[in-house]
Write a structure and sequence with these properties.
The chain is an alpha/beta fold. It has 15 helices and 5 strands.
Length: 365
């Protein structure tokens, strides 16, 4: 095993020689007769221990210790004051400076060696424990990442199943997440609703949006894929998907203790059809009775519906969709969110074009 390296900083050649004789058969010992010599050595290596005399030329031991503890490169060096100045006041001073021990030079050599060995062994065990703790934390972070990836994969699969049944909305789930991220980033940037957004767990918020339409699984294929406008009975049926989605997510929520993403998913599913003026469904909530997540989803969901083709309608242009959303400011949509949307609407257009190009490429292949 590699020998521990110890620096002795002492201006007394006699003390340096005596100390080296005691230590040299066990440790690699280096001597420094001044602060300047000590810092020259520290440029070459960081020792396992520094033995420091109080009485030193130019800078005394206290001043040297302060310099070391205030320097990020050297502050972790263990310091023992090995000194001829042996009074209670000096001992308290050096311990307050962060030294790990205060040893008088009059101590017997075997006791000196034992104290030194005890400290070095303790430091080694602490280092091993820290490395073990770092390793455990690294593995824990990796495991959390794997679990989150698994959760997101499950969410994506469920979202894809909804889209598979409702083929008229192809790519909707993926686009919704991108639109939502853009709008969330903008309101955070503009410090809009910061009291709410600062409490969000962003690792779960946007991925959970994949379940906003999960309730459509319970809606008849004939209604979901009807190539014409829905009649009143059919529309009342499809409106139930919001509460059905909430109920389904609540059942999923009961199967796990890690329910943050289900909490957000439930809000998205249950409130994305509520309207600012209270005329939405399923609960007729209005203004800030509607959770912010639902108000955000209302904007992005309507934008995507407008610019997407349906069997019963042609897609609106980006400009037409923006005009409709602006017209809904204060009635359908939260005015502050519409204002934020207007500032970044081109990003929505870019996402829609990008996803359309990707879809075309997949069809061609």
């Amino acid at each position: 095993m590699k020998s521990k390296r110890i620096i002795i900083a002492d201006d007394s050649l006699t003390s340096l020689s005596a100390c080296k004789i005691i230590l040299k058969h066990i440790y690699d010992v280096y001597s420094a007769s001044s602060a300047a010599k000590l810092f020259e050595l520290l440029e070459w290596f960081i020792p396992d221990m520094l033995l420091l005399e109080v009485a030193m030329p130019d800078l005394n031991g206290y001043e040297i210790a302060r310099l070391l503890k205030n320097n990020s490169k050297y502050k972790e060096i263990p310091i023992i004051f090995y000194t001829t100045i042996c009074d209670a006041e000096s001992e308290l001073e050096v311990l307050n400076l962060g030294a790990i021990d205060f040893i008088c030079k009059s101590i017997a050599a075997p006791l000196f060696l034992k104290r030194l060995d005890m400290h070095l062994s303790t430091i080694a065990r602490q280092k091993e424990l820290q490395e073990l703790n770092d390793s455990i934390q690294k593995r824990l972070i990796e495991k959390i990442g794997q679990v989150m990836n698994l959760q997101n994969s499950v969410l994506q699969i469920v979202g894809d199943l909804v889209e598979f049944r409702d083929y008229t909305t192809g790519g909707h789930v993926l686009r919704i997440q991108k639109y939502l991220s853009c709008l969330i980033n903008k309101i955070i940037e503009d410090d809009i609703y910061s009291a709410e957004t600062m409490l969000w767990d962003m690792d779960y918020l946007v991925p959970s949006a994949q379940l906003h339409d999960v309730g459509k699984i319970a809606i008849s294929d004939m209604i979901l894929n009807k190539p014409a406008q829905l009649n009143e009975e059919e529309f009342n049926s499809i409106k139930t998907h919001a509460q059905i989605g909430v109920n389904a997510i609540e059942r999923m929520e009961k199967t796990t203790k890690e329910s943050s993403f289900f909490k957000y998913a439930k809000i998205f599913a249950g409130t994305h059809h509520e309207k600012w003026n209270g005329s939405g469904y399923p609960n007729g909530l209005k203004e800030d009775e509607i959770p912010l997540e639902g108000r955000l989803m209302a904007v992005v969901d309507v934008y995507d519906a407008l610019v997407s083709a349906r069997p019963y309608k042609n897609p609106c242009s980006h400009e037409e969709a923006v005009a409709i959303i602006e017209e809904g400011r204060g009635t359908h949509f939260d005015p502050a969110l519409v204002d934020a949307f207007m500032k970044i609407s081109q990003q929505f257009a870019d996402i829609a074009l990008s996803e359309e190009a990707d879809a075309t490429q997949l069809i061609q292949h």
